[in-house]
Amino acid sequence: MSDESAMNPPLMNAVVAEVTRRIVATSRASRSAYLDRIAAAGEQGPGRGRLSCANWAHAFAASPVGDRLRARAASTVNVGIVTAFNDMLSAHQPFEDYPARIREAARSVGATAQVAGATPAMCDGVTQGRAGMELSLFSRDVIAMSTAIALSHDAFDAALCLGVCDKIVPGLLMGALSFGHLPVLFVPAGPMSSGLSNPEKAEVRGRFAEGKASREELLEAEQAAYHGPGTCTFYGTANSNQLLMEAMGLHLPGAAFAHPGSPLREAMTRAATHRAIVLAEEGSAPLARVIDEKAVVNGVVALLATGGSTNHAIHLVAIARAAGILIDWDDFDALSAVTPLLARVYPNGAGDVNHFQAAGGAAFVIRELLDAGLMHDDVVTVAGPGLRRYALEPALDGEGALVWRQPPPRTLDALILRPVAEPFSPEGGLKLVRGVLGRGVVKVSAVAGDHRVVEAPALVFDHQDQFLRAFEQGELDQDFVAVLRFQGPRANGMPELHSLTPALSVLQDRGRRVALVTDGRMSGASGKVPAAIHVTPEAAAGGPLARVKDGDVIRLDCDRGVFEVLMDEAVLLSRPVAVKPLGGMGCGRELFGAFRASIGSAEAGASVLFS
Question: From CA 72, how far away is CA 506, in angstroms rounded?
Fold first, then answer.
């Protein structure tokens, strides 16, 4: 914190303060029950002290002799590693050698570290438009459960979670919150270097959608964009996850966007290991204290200020519930109304996360939001008390030691990153829309002002393939609102529908007034076409979308938050409910029938664990 900020801390924005108070009040009973449960676990002392000699011997039977000797000392800290490594996800491939690096870092300070367990980590980029995408959202709760299984060995004094991508970080955090008496740090791997520019990639995708580019051209463009280890560089859910871990105090400051394999990245991983050990020795910053109501609000504000992934309108709700905190889309909407949009990163702008980081990055954003009273500074973080620590960025000094410094006083690229005083928009990147058709969210940060209101006849589809066939056959060259239903969590696991974006973009570029309404997801890659997504109640639960017919005139007004069909509500509700198409079999989907039957609504986090 600067001297001036320390002497004259900014006043909290009145709306942010009121939303926080409302969340505290609404969550009082559930939060208290969670904290009581965590306190009971913490009062039993370190796990190693409760294990019998036979238990402890099993835990270290395969460890090197030095680790076994260290483990015999009652004061030795043992760090549990939960890893989401696989080498099909570019973002997770670097984690392959992290356990060895972490073990060595722990040994260097007299502690031990072990891989407690691994979680699944599927790639939404591979499963887009495929049957496997119907398991993607479910994988988050599976990851939460597998994280709990890993830590249930109860042999750990702290934990490090290795994950980056879409459902993986939320799942790791949801599972780790069941062990909120432990200090828990998230250790990322960083983004890949920039490849083919995002506008060039989008142009090839658009030409391919129109049949003007070959599959070979498309593949060449995609491989030039996604070309090495690290997170995909657009600002989708994976990179939104990383920003949230900074804003919620679960990374070491500035850990999000250092490249894999760089000296800075390696120093950050060693430092995270050492910090986990220090926190365990001190008994400070347990996860349950880090993730509180203020931290959740900070996460929402950071997401809105950067135009982050709409997936977090689901994931943050589920994460909060795992900590006994109740939030909903009204909270997102209220915060969005007072949170300025400070970043334009693809798909909301031309630059990628590497350009964002070079312009000032997360530290710049957090400093701006703190100075404007839009984030809570008085929180607990894994780096110490106060979020102001995250307004610093890491670097290596002349001797290779890790230090933190102030980010640039001004943005280094005003096309990508701006201060609160000169935002891209006075409001955040997310809008709640509501009406007779239900409640949904729109990512407005990439939608131009003259496209935010669409009134047109509905064209109803029950599967994305139906829409794409109609586009390919030239049947969609008109003004319309595409209603894609039976895509919610209960219907088929709520797959992402990115395959629709190129076709809708082509139609909009032709001058057509088009929009999308769906109970499915579009996530962090939501583009320039207005899309009311996550609509709840979903069609499979008898929601109004199941009664819409071709030709019904739908009005989507993203500015006013209106989402309606222009007909008498009684007439709409008197119609029979459309029958959900058969499906849910093959590619493992048959194993998740129990999930589809018991999952909560999108606004409740679309979870089987905290619905």
Answer: 65
Contact between residue 248 and residue 299 where contact means Cβ atoms under 8 Å apart? yes
Render the burial of 269-292: b for 16+ CB within 10 Å, e for the rest. Answer: bbbbbbbbbbbbeeeebbbbbbbb
Calpha distance 445→347 (Å, rounded):
9
Say if 412 falls within a structural domain: no
Instruction: For residue 192, give the DSSP letter.
Output: P
pLDDT tens readout for residues 116-158: 999 999 988 888 888 888 999 999 999 999 999 999 999 999 9
Residue 121, both tokens: 């980590």
Specify the CATH number for the domain of residue 588: 3.50.30.80
Same-domain check for residues 486 and 340: no
Q: What pTM was estimated for this model as a whole?
A: 0.93
Q: Round to whole Å and give the CA distance between 255 and 268.
A: 7
pLDDT band at 447 (very low <50, low <70, confident <90, very high): confident
Side-chain half-sphere CA neighbours of 332 within 13 A: 31
Q: Which two tokens stand for residue 181?
A: 């008496």
**Residue 375 in domain:** yes
Overall size of the chain counted in residues: 611
Amino acid at 581: P
The parent domain of residue 438 ranges over 430-604
Residue 367 near residue 407 (C-beta atoms within 8 A): yes
Count the Cβ atoms, other than its own, within 10 Å of residue 546.
23
State the amino acid at position 533 in one-letter form.
Answer: I
464 and 336 assigned to the same domain: no
Select from 389, 405, 421 the last residue of a domain: 405
pLDDT recorded at residue 145: 98
Q: Residue 407 in contact with residue 393, Cβ under 8 Å?
A: yes
